[in-house]
Specification:
One of its GO terms (molecular function) is transmembrane transporter activity. With about 425 residues, the chain is mostly helical. It has a single domain, classed as Growth Hormone, Chain: A (Up-down Bundle), CATH 1.20.1250.20. Helix content is about 80%, strand content about 0%. It is built from 17 helices and no strands. Helix 1 packs antiparallel against helix 8, helix 2 packs across helix 3 and helix 12 runs parallel beside helix 14. The radius of gyration is 20 Å and the shape is globular. The two termini are about 35 Å apart. About 55% of the residues are buried. The C terminus is likely disordered.
Length: about 425
């Protein structure tokens, strides 16, 4: 097997760096910190979970609105890296700024969190699109899965450091408040993310591009309309995006809301942090395994496996009562979380014209982000109306079933981008 090139390794290491945000800000420390701040301000548990769901929905809606036009502009020569760097800077700086929000201001905390999410996911639009620039099509499954796998491994390091600081503060071994320890974790996340993005900045370049026009903004809007028409013409691409719209909604919602849900079940913050750490460790080899199995059984079949696992997760979640139940749920998620995302990315990269990858990944993003508006809102509204987060999680099952049915109609990529 061919070794990884400098460009492939640099691209992979961005996942190593930015995955610290995924575990510390999206999934673990920030939700726990936010829940404690909101509870201290008198907000009920289910209500604070709903507010977090609404916040995730707002951030993803913003990205859904700007993603396609930014993608259309970024396909011009020299533009992809500029957009990547802008959102990367927004993400890291706002993540660090979470540490300076007053500990009694839960609303400002959610506002800054929205900015961090826009920066993180915005940078990922262009990071994902760079996959076509760093590796040939036959290696995309492996490289994409390797990125997710390395991301899980890399994120455990700042996560361990953050957990250690928080636990030492909880046990009064170090003379700082737990809230201060959480804030330190936000700064650690920003530094880790920044440091391991340096190889990406230095070594990855846009290879597939369109010649610059005098007015790139006007040209971008014009090409955006053309691309939308082309997506409808490319039946395979359009069908995949519809399938992706539904199943990735469920995946993203479970990732974003799992810690808040665990808190509502009465699981302690310490137990949640340990469970999430083990989840990262288990997820790493499974993400890489998905990539290897996709080489043998095809990416589509492995996507089937991942979606079915998530259907089981939704059913099991509705009956959870104990910490052990949450352990079982977390391990189920760990087996497929990285694999389903990695293979979705590489599957789509094989379907689209490489010189227009940013445009098409802009639509990939808008389908994913609009889906991510629906899922958290569904969970949040259900939790509000019923007073139970379990019903919200169970309701996500319909998204996976629809996604599975649509994916069944999408043919395997054959290396030819065909329109109808």
């Amino acid at each position: 097997m061919k070794k990884f090139s400098k460009q492939e390794n640099s691209w992979i290491f961005y996942d190593w760096g930015n995955s610290a945000y995924s575990i510390i800000i999206t999934t673990a420390v920030f939700p726990l910190y936010y829940k404690s701040v909101a509870t201290g301000a008198g907000v009920e548990l289910s209500t604070s979970t709903a507010y977090l769901g609404y916040t995730v929905a707002i951030a993803t809606f913003i990205l859904a609105m700007i993603g396609p036009i930014l993608g259309a502009i970024a396909d011009y020569e020299g533009m992809k890296k500029k957009f990547f760097l802008f959102f990367f800077a927004v993400g890291t700086l706002s993540t660090a700024s979470l540490a300076f929000v007053p500990s009694d201001n839960w609303l400002l905390l959610l506002i800054i969190y929205t900015v961090t999410a826009v920066g993180f996911h915005g940078a990922n639009i262009f990071y994902d699109a760079f996959l076509v620039d760093v590796t040939p099509e036959k290696r995309m499954n492996r490289i994409s899965a390797r990125g997710f796998g390395m991301g899980y491994i890399g994120s455990t390091i700042p996560f361990i450091i953050s957990i250690a600081i928080i636990l030492l503060a909880q046990n009064e071994i170090i003379p700082i408040a737990v809230s201060t320890a959480s804030r330190i974790a936000f700064v650690i996340t920003a530094i880790w993310w920044f440091t391991f993005t340096i190889p990406m900045i230095n070594n990855v370049r846009q290879i597939h591009a369109i010649k610059r026009e005098p007015n790139v903004l006007a040209g971008g809007f014009k090409r955006l309309g053309t691309t939308f028409s082309e997506i409808r013409k490319y039946r395979t691409v359009f069908l995949f995006l519809l399938a992706y719209f539904f199943y990735i909604d469920g995946v993203g919602t479970i990732i974003a809301m799992s810690t808040a849900y665990g808190t509502d079940l009465g699981i302690s913050a310490t137990s949640l942090l340990i469970i999430l750490f083990v989840t990262q460790v288990v997820a790493a080899p499974f993400a890489i395994l998905y990539g290897k199995l996709a080489q043998k059984f095809t990416g589509k079949k492995m996507l089937y496996v991942g979606i079915i696992v998530y259907i089981i997760v939704c059913i099991y979640a509705s009956f959870m009562e104990t910490t052990m139940d949450f352990w079982v749920l977390a391990m189920l998620v760990a087996t497929s979380q990285g694999g389903i995302q990695a293979l979705s990315r590489s599957y789509f990269a094989k379907l689209v014209p490489k010189e227009k990858s940013n445009e098409f990944f802009g639509f990939y993003n808008i389908f994913g982000k609009f889906a991510s508006v629906m899922g958290p809102l569904l969970l949040g509204v259900t939790a509000h109306l019923t007073g139970s987060s379990a019903y919200g999680v169970f309701s996500l099952i319909i998204l996976f079933i629809i996604g599975l049915a649509l994916l069944a109609r999408v043919p395997e990529p054959d290396g030819q981008v065909k329109s109808v």
